[in-house]
Amino acid sequence: MTNARAKGQRNELRAQRLLEQWGYTVFRLYQPRMSAQGPCDMIALGMGRVRFIQVRSNQWHDLRALKALLVPDQLSATKEVWRYDNHVTEPKQRVLE
Predict the structure, then answer these.
(1) What is the enclosing helix (H) or strand (E) of 30?
(2) Helix H or strand E segment including 61
(3) Cα–Cα distance between 83 and 92 in angstroms, integer?
(4) Which residue has the higher pLDDT, 2 or 61?
(5) Contacts of 18 (CB under 8 A, 6+ apart)
(6) pLDDT confidence of 71, banded at 50, 70, 90?
(7) Minimal CA–CA distance to 81: which of 37, 47, 48, 32?
(8) Side-chain half-sphere CA neighbours of 88 within 13 A
(9) What pTM was computed for the model?
(10) Which of 51, 56, 19, 20 has the alpha carbon at shortest distance from 37?
(11) Which terminal CB of the chain, N or C, has fewer other CB atoms within 10 Å?
(12) How do residues 5-45 score in pLDDT, each as one tens digit?
């Protein structure tokens, strides 16, 4: 059985590396082990955009916290969920409104 936290961290690292290959600067948000999860796992800056990204493994789960995240209109920003399925190298991406 795979440790879910370790699997999530591996997928976050995969997403970070992919974004960095695309030219983004990525900030991963620290979340203490016993705390409730925040609305996003990382923030990517680059190409005149800001991307708030939640990384998931195998399921979309509850996305209310990310949807409720307030983003100023002046930012060219997107709220995204990236899902890594087992044995698949590229994430499925969903942009939230």
Answers:
(1) none
(2) none
(3) 5
(4) 61
(5) 91
(6) confident
(7) 37
(8) 12
(9) 0.81
(10) 56
(11) N
(12) 788 888 999 999 999 999 999 999 877 665 566 788 899 99
